[in-house]
Amino acid sequence: MTIYYSLTFMLLAAEMLTFAGLVVPFPYSVRKRVFGFLSESPIVAKIAYGIKISFIFVGILFFDALQRMFRITAEADMAKHNQQMGDVRTETSFAARKFYAQRNVYLTGFTLFLSLVLTRTFAISLELIHSQEEYAKLKKAGPSGSDSSTQKKAREYDALKSRYDTQVTEFNQLADKYNKVADGKVDKKRV
């Protein structure tokens, strides 16, 4: 295996270990500290930037390996069609080249795929921690906040009830005055 595919394999192994570390069920306080450090540390940000650049190279390797695999497969099919595979060594050589090309495609493809999985898993875990913090804040503020809102609603209800009672009394007084002024004469057209 060439050096760049060896480095790609080491990157894949590091990604697998990182993923295992991300999904291990740590206590909330430990998880909060670790993810806080990972998301806020400038050193970790520089390392992540370097790794993102390396994924660009892995992507280039992936497309190169994919192209090589298609070319070798086409050559093997052409040789079988032209019946140039009479020799066992030639057939073994084509099979070995095809195997190495496929191995390189899978190696680079899984490395790229796991990088996407790691990014999303980290984002989901960070979002979960923030949601748990918000939940704790709301839970802490909940009982006192609900008591004050209940008291506020009760005061508003009492104020509205007193205004209603005042308006009903004024309406009754005006209705009595109107009845006295009208002296029982009701306009038939209005009724």
Automatic annotation (TrEMBL):
Key words of the record? Endoplasmic reticulum, ER-Golgi transport, Membrane, Protein transport, Transmembrane, Transmembrane helix, Transport
Query: Transmembrane stretches, by residue range?
Result: 7-28, 43-63, 105-123
A GO cellular component entry from the record? endoplasmic reticulum membrane
Q: What is this protein called?
A: Endoplasmic reticulum transmembrane protein
Q: Can you say where in the cell this protein is located? A: Endoplasmic reticulum membrane; Membrane
Q: Does the keyword Zinc-finger apply?
A: no
**Superkingdom field:** Eukaryota
